Amino acid sequence: MGFGHEKLDVYRAAIEYVGWAYAFCENLKGHRNAKDQLLRASQAIPLNIAEGNGKATVGDRRRYFEIARGSALECGAVQDVLHVCGALSGEDNKSRKALLDRIVAMLTKLGQRGYTVHEEQTQYIAGIDSDSDCDPDTDGNREQSKKKHTPLL
């Protein structure tokens, strides 16, 4: 079954990045502040994607995607710090930044006004109510039901 955010490419890419960050930090000697910052910021990317995708309003959703985007950019800066300090090779920095760049691009698109991600509605429909009112028509008298309720749309 799965959650809606698990279907997003950006979420899966963010999880891939977190996996790399943890493996990299396990072998990193010293650089405690940068290591802590990389682990925290890398985790924040998928966590904010998941939380944002679950929000009901477009504004809330956008805010969480923008926070995730900021965390991805922060990870890039931490990589630069580790590279200049000699703890991360230029090749590793470049290849991981390519993944971050992809994540940032997708989050930028998701954070734009009017852009939303929806799950398939069919998985939530238990029965079909063919009229447009808000009741489930369990009494079998649809005409009377229509007169009692004003459609919400």
Describe, in short, the structure shown.
By secondary structure, this protein is mostly helical. About 65% of the residues lie in helices and about 0% in strands. It contains five helices and no strands.
Report on this structure.
By secondary structure, the chain is mainly α. The chain has one domain (4-120): 23S rRNA-intervening sequence (de novo design (two linked rop proteins), Up-down Bundle). It is built from five helices and no strands.
Compute the gyration radius: what is it? 22 Å
Uncertain runs are 142-149
CATH class: Mainly Alpha
Share of residues in strands = under 5%
Largest sheet: none
Report the principal-axis shape.
elongated
Structural class: mainly alpha
- How many domain units? 1
Could you please say which CATH topology applies here? Answer: de novo design (two linked rop proteins)
* DSSP strand tally: 0
Order of helical and strand elements: HHHHH
Q: Could you give the distance between the termini? A: 31 Å
Superfamily (CATH H level) name: 23S rRNA-intervening sequence
- Helix fraction? 55-70%
State the CATH architecture. Up-down Bundle
Number of helices: 5
- On the 0-100 scale, what is the average pLDDT? 82
Keywords:
153 residues, de novo design (two linked rop proteins), 5 helices, 63% helix
